[in-house]
Structure formats: structure tokens, C-alpha cells
């Protein structure tokens, strides 16, 4: 269910909270694509909650438009809001979600998709988290201005034009500790609501690797 959170600058926003089932492994902040806190993303939250993670999905578009859900076949409004978002403000909202989970979880990690995948890199650089997981994150070069402060695992498609091979080579040089897994897929291969992009085999393997990585660093 959605619950209101407040960032350290006083901004109030909605955050989808999904409690862990069974014995909790830790907290996991899931970061959105440019489509908002979609039903598909809430499905990801349910899957990870079933694996024992307390989940929070901050509504990162609430500073531009509260409750914004962008159709997958009309990405332009989401792209515009992403470009208009101030990075420091976005990180404040992510930090508030991390702090909310820290009330009930000893350790908290971040996992992001697309725009959120890039933000997961920044979170690993500046926030007090245990680790981060990045699914085909966009805008990677803008995060190469500082070292990773925490362990990060990345999942990338070999045919993803958002992260071409030369960009990944730059990332390997900038982030020597970045754990990289490659899949014979394009962008958004783990989004099961986008049949044009979804690859079930790759998505299943990537999530299994992510769960193992999270369990290691949250344990």
C-alpha cells in the first residue's frame, strides 16, 4: 500500500510499502523506470517480498506530478519528467525511503530499473546502504564522477542501445568492483509487461543472481 514519506527538505511524497513474507532478510528500495510506480513494478515488489525483503518504492515523479503513471507505449511524458527531476532532490526521496526501511531492517539495499538503475549507482556512492543492483540503467556516464562506495551488481543486455559496449567499457574502468552480468537481450528485458522487450529466461536468471547478491550483502 502507499504511505506518505517526507524527505529532508520537507517534500511529502507517496511510497509503495510491501512487507516481507516470512523471516525478513532486510530492506530493499526499488527504483522506478520513467513510467512511475506501475502495477508491473509493484509485481516486482511482491516477488521480492515473497523472498523475504521489506520493500519500498518511492514515487520519484511526485515532485513533478503526483501519482503519475506513464503508459509503456507513450514514454515521452515520463522522459520529460525524468529530465526535469533534480538529481539531489531525487536522491533525497530515495534516502527517505531507505531511512523508512531502516526502522525495521538492519540493512537496506537499492535495486533499480532503467532510470532507477542509474540512480542505484548514485545511491551506492552517496547513501548509507548495504549494496545496489542495477538493471540496464540509463545515463551511466553521468555517474562516473565518483567511486562506488558499496558493492554493485549490474545486469545488461548485449543489444541494449542505451548501454552500448563502449559505455560498458568506460564503466568497467570507472568502477573496477562493479559486478557485471550480460544477457543476449535488448533494453527492458526484465519487464514482463512489455512483450516486445521481455525475455523470460534472462529475467529469471538475472533476478536469481540479484536475490543471491542481496542475500549475501544484507545477511
From TrEMBL:
Keyword Hydrolase: yes
Organism: Roseinatronobacter alkalisoli
Every Dienelactone hydrolase domain range: 21-217
An annotated Gene Ontology molecular function: hydrolase activity
Keywords, alphabetical: Hydrolase
Organism domain of life: Bacteria
Protein name per its UniProtKB record: Dienelactone hydrolase family protein
InterPro entries: AB_hydrolase_fold, Dienelactn_hydro, Dienelactone_hydrolase-like
SUPFAM superfamilies, per the entry: alpha/beta-Hydrolases
Pfam families: DLH (PF01738)
Amino acid at each position: 500500500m502507499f504511505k506518505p514519506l517526507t524527505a529532508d527538505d520537507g517534500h511529502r511524497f507517496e511510497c509503495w510499502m510491501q512487507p516481507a513474507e516470512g523471516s525478513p532478510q532486510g530492506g530493499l528500495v526499488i527504483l522506478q523506470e520513467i513510467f512511475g510506480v506501475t502495477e508491473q513494478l509493484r509485481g516486482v515488489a511482491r516477488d521480492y517480498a515473497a523472498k523475504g525483503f521489506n520493500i519500498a518504492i518511492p514515487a520519484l515523479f511526485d515532485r513533478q506530478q503526483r501519482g503519475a503513471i506513464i503508459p509503456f507505449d507513450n514514454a515521452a511524458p515520463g522522459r520529460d519528467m525524468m529530465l526535469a527531476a533534480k538529481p539531489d532532490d531525487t536522491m533525497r526521496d530515495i534516502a527517505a525511503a531507505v531511512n523508512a526501511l531502516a526502522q525495521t531492517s538492519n540493512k537496506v539495499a537499492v535495486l533499480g530499473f532503467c532510470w532507477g538503475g542509474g540512480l542505484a549507482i548514485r545511491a551506492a556512492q552517496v547513501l548509507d546502504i548495504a549494496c545496489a543492483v542495477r538493471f540496464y540503467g540509463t545515463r551511466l556516464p553521468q555517474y562516473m564522477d565518483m567511486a562506488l562506495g558499496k558493492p554493485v551488481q549490474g545486469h545488461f543486455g548485449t543489444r541494449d542501445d542505451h548501454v552500448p559496449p563502449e559505455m560498458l567499457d568506460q564503466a568497467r574502468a570507472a568502477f573496477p568492483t562493479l559486478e557485471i552480468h550480460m544477457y543476449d537481450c535488448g533494453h527492458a528485458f526484465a519487464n514482463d509487461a512489455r512483450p516486445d522487450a521481455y525475455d523470460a529466461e534472462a529475467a529469471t536468471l538475472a533476478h536469481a543472481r540479484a536475490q543471491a547478491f542481496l542475500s549475501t550483502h544484507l545477511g
